[in-house]
Structures are given as C-alpha cells and as structure tokens.
C-alpha cells in the first residue's frame, strides 16, 4: 500500500507513522513518496518517486491530510486505477472517508479488506489557442476559467453542445463534477449534487448578466468557454493544482473524463448524512418514517 501525507503538518506525520507501523506489523508492504520519506522517518518502507508508478500494483493508497492532499494523490492513482482512501486532517474534507479519531479502526478495516470501492466521474479539459490544441488536462473536482487581472472583468461566451448559450462579464466560470459540487462550485453559489448523479455543472462567478444561474447539463454534453479577444488574459485552474495561461481568444473545452477516480469507502453512509455532518446542518424535530407499533397494527413515529 502507498501512504501519502501532508508532511507540512506534524499531526499528519504522526498519523502516517502510526499507519505505516500497523500496516507493516500486519505483513503489508508499505510504500511512501521519496520526497516525503525524510519527514516520516520510517524504516523498512519502499520510497518511490512521486509519479504514477508509485501507485502501480498497490492495493490501496491511504492519504492523510485534507482534500488538497487527496487531490494531489489522485494525480498519482488515476491511470493505475488504485483506490484512494482519505483520512481527513483538514477542515471539511468532503473527499475523505475517515476522520482523525477513527485512525485505529480505519487501519483495522483496511488490513481486513472491509471496504468497498466506488468510481467518481472526472472531466477532461482541452485548451485551444489559434485553432490548435495548446494543452490537455483533467480534473476530479472542477476546471475554472478565471480572470488573471483583478481590476478588470473577464468577458467570455459559454457554449453547450456546439451552440452558444450566453455572454458573461464575470470573474470566471466553474465547470464541475458532482464530486466538485461541494467545493469551488458550492462557494460560487452552485447546487449540491449527489455523487450518484451523472452530470456536469456550469457555475458563473460574479457574472454581470440577467441570465447567470448555475446550470446542470448532461454528462454527455460538451461545454466550452471562449475568452473573447478584447478581454484581459485569463487562467485555467484544474482542481486548484494544474494551471494553464489563457490569452485573449483562447477556448477551453470540457467533457466527461475517459478515466474515473476510484475512492475506497469504509461505510455505506448516505450522502445526506455526510452533508449534515460536514456542514453541521440542523435536523432537530425530524421524526422520520412512521413505523408499526410493536404488537399491534397501529403506527408510531420516531422521536
């Protein structure tokens, strides 16, 4: 198994050391990234370069940190298909499956292979400049076209399935997956989309337009954002990690990704419960479904 940690956080280092120790005692070969190995100070582990080869043939990648660390690890595992299991040591941590207080039981379930794997939709992103492909990349959460100059608005035209939709003067446009609906798209006013829903979101950021609502389009759709020629330069961000400069006239095309990311899950917790927990949503007064009275034909309600 590959262990990836946010080594800039002492807590993540201690947690990674604990995970490595217990996996090793269970007879599991442990890998770490060579740039993280000096901080982890763990003997008997394999230190590999931070490339896709580090996750190749591994059963699982255990990530200790926040969503940013998980997104970093997703770069390593996407092509190998190795599942990710995130332990949240950050703030909200929507991509993580376990919390820091559950670390011991998490390792036990991993050793006993008591987890299941689900696939999450990704998006493939292509940048065109002067009619030619200038860059290709991908995202698990979102691809965002943003203005690069604070003092001026970005002028874009958004296209869906080969047809122009609207011209926006804005700070940017977020194209997100359902997984990313609780990340940047959520902060920009987009809807929360359950992970089982296959769709793409298009969310304008601070748009000056009468029609500037978040959109939910088919996963089979192709979305394009064209940076108008007379607008300031822009920048493309994918998952807040990969960036491409966009001169005036550039075109960004977003489609459903050909390769999903696989996430390991320890529990069958409904997404609704995750929302309630992560955001501390008030549910006081909920009674739930009416249940039959014991020993009778009447009905009662949960309290």
From TrEMBL:
Binding-site residues for NAD(+), renumbered to this chain: 67-68, 72, 141-142, 152, 171, 182-187
Subcellular location: Cytoplasm
Enzyme Commission number(s) from the entry: 2.7.1.23
GO molecular function, one term: metal ion binding
Active site, UniProt feature: 67
InterPro entries: ATP-NAD_kinase_N (IPR017438), ATP-NAD_kinase_PpnK-typ_C (IPR017437), NAD/diacylglycerol_kinase_sf (IPR016064), NADK (IPR002504)
Top-rank taxon, per record: Bacteria
Reactions this protein catalyses: NAD(+) + ATP = ADP + NADP(+) + H(+)
Keyword tags: ATP-binding, Cytoplasm, Kinase, NAD, NADP, Nucleotide-binding, Transferase
An annotated GO BP: NADP+ biosynthetic process
EC supergroup of this enzyme: transferase
Record flagged with keyword Membrane: no
PANTHER family: NAD KINASE
HAMAP family (alphabetical): NAD_kinase
Function description: Involved in the regulation of the intracellular balance of NAD and NADP, and is a key enzyme in the biosynthesis of NADP. Catalyzes specifically the phosphorylation on 2'-hydroxyl of the adenosine moiety of NAD to yield NADP.
Name listed for the protein in its UniProt record: NAD kinase
Gene it is expressed from: nadK
